[in-house]
Design goal:
Strand content: 15-25%
Distance between the termini: 50 Å
Order of helices and strands: HEEEHEHEHHHHEHEH
Shape: globular
Number of helices: 9
Helix content: 40-55%
CATH class: Alpha Beta
CATH superfamily: Alpha/Beta hydrolase fold, catalytic domain
Radius of gyration: 18 Å
Structural class: alpha/beta
């Protein structure tokens, strides 16, 4: 009841847990790291040491995950709610200072794009890693595969026991460092994230019109990513650059190298423009 009053009726965003992985002295940028579904901020531990040393690095526990709130009401975990909660957390902690780079993995990449849409003046660069960008059924360019993925997601939403087993296998074996111990309390928020943030997304349309410089990194062997949706985006938006790498869905050493490389390049551009 209180949750609904504060966050729905009064429209107060939730606050998120921020894992400050490194605080730079006179940092050139603040790098915000957003994990994917059934993961936590711990996903980024291996990446952090490889990021530029003169930056502040903050990994976030998204709504329904890790140490962040697990909303009790339905409808609280849309991409917009996640982005608004992120802004509140960064602003209240004093970390909403330019330049800001946001790196998102999987569902986190969709939230990064939504943040850039809502707050274009608050973010300078986004990196989307393994983004599961899907189109409405009447617009899909790879209907069989995309519909099959969506049906699988819907099956998991409606079958708690199987979904829990799949999530545990995925987070421990296929998505390095992403483990979130799933309890009954965790399940409903995760289902809400899957339904509202992934199945009901409009990220393709968002990215078509986004002015924020955007790097997309995805794996050639990723079963959850529709590569044709990503390459099609380049036709609409010159602010997007795309790199395909030899990996699957997880944040591998190869993916980490390309994330670091893209951030270094953007920092160099910033130095030249000063």
């Amino acid at each position: 009841m209180l949750d609904k009053l504060i966050h729905k009726n009064l429209k107060v965003p939730y606050s998120l847990y921020l894992n400050i992985m490194r605080k730079g002295r006179n940092p050139k940028a603040t790098i915000i790291l957003l994990h994917g579904l059934a993961s936590t901020s711990e996903l980024w531990k291996a990446l952090c040491p490889n990021l530029p040393k003169d930056t502040t690095v903050i990994a976030v526990d998204l709504l329904g995950h890790g140490k962040s709130p697990k909303p009790s009401r339905l409808g609280a975990q849309t991409l917009t709610h996640q982005a608004r909660a992120l802004k509140r957390a960064l602003q209240s902690s004093g970390h909403l200072k330019h330049p800001i780079f946001i790196v998102g993995h999987s569902m986190g990449s969709l939230i990064a794009a939504e943040f850039a849409r809502l707050y274009p003046k608050k973010v300078d660069y986004i990196v989307l890693v393994s983004p599961p960008i899907y189109l409405p059924d009447d617009k899909t360019i790879w209907p069989r595969r995309e519909k099959l993925l969506k049906k699988n997601y819907e099956f998991l939403i409606n079958n708690k026991d199987i979904a829990t087993k799949v999530a545990k296998i995925a987070t421990t074996k296929f998505i390095n460092g992403a483990t979130q111990v799933l309890t009954d309390e965790d399940f409903e928020p995760l289902v809400e994230s899957l339904k509202l943030s992934i199945l009901e997304q409009d990220t393709f349309e968002v990215l078509k019109h986004l002015n924020t410089p955007t790097k997309i990194i995805y794996g050639a062997f990723d079963p959850l990513v529709i590569g044709k949706n990503i390459t099609k985006l380049k036709k609409y938006n010159d602010n997007i650059s795309i790199t395909m790498i030899p990996s699957a869905h997880d944040v591998t050493m190869i993916a980490s190298r390309f994330i670091t490389k893209s951030i270094n390049q953007e920092l160099l551009i910033g130095d030249k423009n000063e």
